[in-house]
Amino acid sequence: MQGKPVVDAIRDAIVRGEFVPNQRLVEADLSARFAASRAAVRSALLELTNEGLVERVQNRGARVRAVSLAEAVEISEVRMMLEGLCAAKAAERVTATEIGELTAIGTHMRAAVSSGDVLGYSRLNQTLHRRIREISGQETASRVLERLRAQSVRHQFKLAMHPGRPAVSLPEHLAIIEAICAHDAEAAEQAARAHLRSVIAALREVDNAEGGVRHLP
Fold it and tell me: Which part of the chain is the HTH gntR-type domain (predicted)?
């Protein structure tokens, strides 16, 4: 395994909780686990550090960066503004072909929630947000959002696994899709912001349910 696959493998392990916050990431161990060279692992850790998933500690090497509830909320507040902008831009630019694509994603999201396919719904969620960014053509906002998404990917995965969350977020996503497909920029922006406000509320709810743990697992 070389290059990008090593990055993906380590990232997935962090997202799924196989590596916990503040856990040391030892190059030799990662090299053996993922059948990758030390150089490839070192490069992957550097990339994940740039993404905000890993941090370097002086004289101690790399470790999984812990994301506090307060930071997760701050990230979501910034995302609220930028995703609202991208949704509005997407509503202005969306083509007939892209409308068909977004509508299909919405249909698949409904099916995933109905069948209880939480992981499938989570993947569709990520696909929808990515396509809206791409359709928007707002490259600066897209770059910032991609960095924020990487930093908050653990709590996004955690929320997706939280009982009942997909049923709450489904109508929020469908509202965004409907507004974009109707070329209603204002409604699309408001729907995107409403969704992120819901995410913030859910983050706090999950934190409270777990007894106020200050770091997202």
Answer: 1-67
DSSP 215: B
Q: Which two tokens stand for residue 167?
A: 């049923």
Name the class of domain 69-209: mainly alpha
Say which CATH topology domain 4-64 has. Answer: Arc Repressor Mutant, subunit A (1.10.10)
pLDDT at 45 over 70: yes
In terms of Cβ atoms closer than 10 Å to its own Cβ (0-12, 13-18, 19+), residue 110 is: middle
Q: How sure is the predictor about 160, in pLDDT bands with cuts at 50, 70 and 90?
A: confident
Q: Which of 90, 112, 116 is nearest to 101 (CA)?
A: 90
Rounded to whole angstroms, what are the CA distances from 183 to 12, 132, 140?
A: 36, 13, 22
pTM, 2 dp: 0.78
Kindly list the domain boundaries of the chain, sorted by start residue.
4-64, 69-209
pLDDT score recorded for residue 210: 64
